[in-house]
Design goal:
CATH architecture of the largest domain: 3-Layer(aba) Sandwich
CATH topology of the largest domain: Peroxisomal Thiolase, Chain A, domain 1
Protein name: Thiolase
Organism: Pseudorhodobacter turbinis
Order of helices and strands: EHEHEHEHHHHEEEHEHEHHHHEE
Radius of gyration: 19 Å
Keywords: Plasmid
Number of domains: 2
Number of strands: 11
Structural class: alpha/beta
Largest sheet: 9 strands, mixed
Strand order of the largest sheet: 3-2-4-7-1-8-11-10-9
GO molecular function, one term: acetyl-CoA C-acyltransferase activity
Strand content: 15-25%
CATH superfamily of the largest domain: Thiolase/Chalcone synthase
Amino acid sequence: MKDQSMRGKSAIVGMATAGIGEAPGFSAMELLGQAAVAAVADAGLKMQDIDAVFAATSSHAFPTMSVVEYLGLKPRYFDGTNVGGSSFELHLLQATMALEAGLCDVALVCYGSNQRTAGGALVSMSEPQWHETPYKPRHPITAYALATSRHMAQYGTTRENLADVALAARGWANLNPEAFARGPLTKDEVLSARMISDPLSKSDCCLVTDGAAACVLVRADRAKDLAAKPVYFLGAGAANYHRSIVAMPDLTTTAAVDSGARALEMAGVSRKELDLVMLYDAFTINTILFLEDLGFCPKGEGGRFVADGRIAPGGELAVNTNGGGLSCVHPGMYGLFLIAEAVAQIRGQAGARQIDGCDLALCHGNGGTLSSQCTAILGSEATL
């Protein structure tokens, strides 16, 4: 029996981003605050209406406490679950459950980072691991390079396939005035880019930017009475089987196999019905792995699937229409920006990159080193 008890029970009624790219002079919390205030205003609500907070950051050990203090909130419910960049897709499910249970009435999901202007370089994401430390990995890049190498060896995936992912992301970014990396990019430029961790070059790696995002959720029966067009929560699923990359059961298959199936089942929709697919592209291999694991193509066929502009503007499948973490924004934890783009597309607010008739979107978040996988399905009123 399918559990669809949460389907359509909540809606995103406020959404905003702030400081995308470079925001010199602002702390991570100040950027988060800007996004939160704008999201609440977008919903036509006041900050004192917020009675639940969901937050995860890479800058605060106790994120909900810091958010509550900074914004002057007194929530009835709060949750600081941090499973990396996928936290926010999980927060949508948690917020929906809290709303449905009557534990809160207006939930804020938020994130902020000044990673680029505060220092820039990515640092190790892993606690010391006795089985990894002797090899001196540079995580997360080392871990993703390992998975990429295995996919290449097992399925014949090529650097040209990876380049197709980067080029598609740039093509979408060039339609997005907020994207940090814009301008022409050729396959030769991607393939000749400086190697960072073989076989991943600079062009295969996500951006290092500042940025913040926030969304506001209410119960569905209240959503139509608020200022902005509601975007409904239809389903979500999560799966997590390892922390360290060396403990990953199969380097070519992620837990998205299970999180995606659970989300689609809860939403009661098929892949063919999806208008938009937002994937956490911290590295080019992510897009290929997730397209396979979420069922858009058979395992091992991801590299060939993305060829010939299939996921680029004008292609068969709209993927990462904001430009993704590769060309739009990646401030350490990217998952909430997937949601922001899905909301913009479903509302019809995406400008030059707008997809015709976008009613149904999949957002897939990834945390750690291909560790936590969380998938959420969002839809317009027409999908209820």
